[in-house]
Structures are given as structure tokens and as C-alpha cells.
Amino acid sequence: MHASNSSGKVDGPGRRDWPCQVRDCVPGSPPGRPVIVGPSPGTKGGVALRRHTAGFTITELLIAVAILFILMTGIMTTYVFSIWGFQSTANYVQLHQDGRTAVNQFLQDKDMRGVYSLVSFATNGPVVVQVATNFNSGTFMLNTVTYTFNSSGHTFSRQDRSGSTLLATNVNNAIFTIYDLNFNQTNNPNVAKSIQLDLTMSNSVVKWPETEDYLSARTVMRNTPF
């Protein structure tokens, strides 16, 4: 045993006492009474060691931020490419629909198939034709129709006496080609018997060219005199 002196100190190695605080008191010891504490697990030299809750260090925070940044970059990249893919598909569908509408109007409807005369022709347009309409007892009227490619506005349009119609947008190029009765290419409107239209169209996603489409068709101008 170790003896206690009059000052409340405890003799002996590795042992000491101090006035008990409420948070440090041994259960059952009144506040202010000296408590003898000896060596025990979690102590050093007979003095109790308290565990403190430590925060994150700067290094740990930087590592966490870097990992979060990498994860967010991957998520945003996947999202952007997904949106890009969906928009590209939508652009192609719209381009193809516009191109088919323009080609059908030019070649398969009444205009080029019912041309009475080819008034003027240029490789990139305009192409001016006269179409016979309002047939009545052997008489008819001529409707002048003009097809124009606007290279600055990237549009393809049709105009007649009733007004102008926009057939397609996002048109990069429109090429007209005419052929004679033997299907030889010619530049002479007077001997032209068939005509071909080539449309090149494109659209962009976030200002970058992304989607392209090409349409081509040829038809015989049945009523053209030759």
C-alpha cells in the first residue's frame, strides 16, 4: 500500500491525485475530493488521457475535393455526350424530312413533271419554268415557277404568282442538272428533257457541324417541247 500524506498526495511511483472535476470524477466521488488514479489502460504515467474528435486536415479536404471534381467531370461529360447524341438524331430526322419535302415538291408534284417550257437555268439556280395549269376545253394558263437556292441564308424556296414558299432550311448547296432526250448532260434549256436536283444539307450542335444529309432525284419533264 501507499500512504497518503497530509496534503492529499499519494506516495508511490506512477500515482497521483487531483481535485475531482465533475467531468473527470470517478463514479461515486463527490466533486472537489481528491481522486487517486493509478496506471490503467488508456493512461500514461497514471494520468488519464482523453480522446479528442479531430477534424479533416487540409490534405484530406484537398483529396476529397479532387475526387469529387473527377466524379462530377465524368458525370457532366456523359450527360453532354448524351444530349449531343439525342440532338444529332433529332437534327438528322428534321433534315431528312425537310429535304424530302423539297425534293418531292420540285420533282414529283406538278411542277417539273408538268413543265411546259424551261425558261432559264443555272447550275446553282435559279431555275425558272412555266407550268401549264387551268386546262379547259383545250386551253390552259401558264404559271411561272422559280426555284431559288440562297447560299447566304442556306434556304431553298419556290415562288409562283401566288407567293413564295420556303421548302427547306440548313441547305449547304443545291445543284441543278439538265439532260437532253438521250439523257446526255446539257446546258441548253431548249433541248432539256429531264432535270436533276442534288441537295446537301447540314445542321450543328452547339455551333459545331454535326449532321449532314444528301438527297438526289431526277425526273422527266413530260410536257417540255423538243
Blueprint of the fold:
Blueprint: E1 16-19, E2 34-37, E3 43-44, E4 47-48, H1 58-108, H2 110-113, E5 115-120, E6 127-136, E7 139-150, E8 155-160, E9 163-169, E10 171-179, E11 185-186, E12 194-205, E13 208-220
Antiparallel strand pairs: 1-2, 3-4, 5-6, 6-7, 7-8, 8-9, 10-11, 10-12, 12-13
Model description:
The protein is an alpha+beta fold and about 230 residues long. Among the domains are: about 15-50, no CATH class; about 95-220, no CATH class. It is about 25% helix and about 40% strand. It is built from 2 helices and 13 strands. The chain has helices spanning about 60-110, 110-115, and strands spanning about 15-20, 35, 45, 45-50, 115-120, 125-135, 140-150, 155-160, 165-170, 170-180, 185, 195-205, 210-220. A 5-stranded antiparallel β-sheet has the order 5-6-7-8-9. Strand 8 (about 155-160) and strand 9 form a beta hairpin. The chain is rod-shaped.
What would the average pLDDT be, to the nearest integer? 75
Query: Unreliable stretches, pLDDT < 50, 5 or more residues?
Result: 6-10, 20-24, 33-37
Strand content: 35-45%
Order of helices and strands: EEEEHHEEEEEEEEE
User: How many E-type strands?
Assistant: 13
Discrete helix count: 2
N-to-C span: 135 Å
Largest sheet: 5 strands, antiparallel
Shape assignment: rod-shaped
Major sheet: order of its strands? Answer: 5-6-7-8-9
Q: Which characteristics define this entry?
A:
single chain, 226 residues, alpha+beta, 5-stranded antiparallel β-sheet, 4-stranded antiparallel β-sheet, 24% helix, 39% strand, rod-shaped
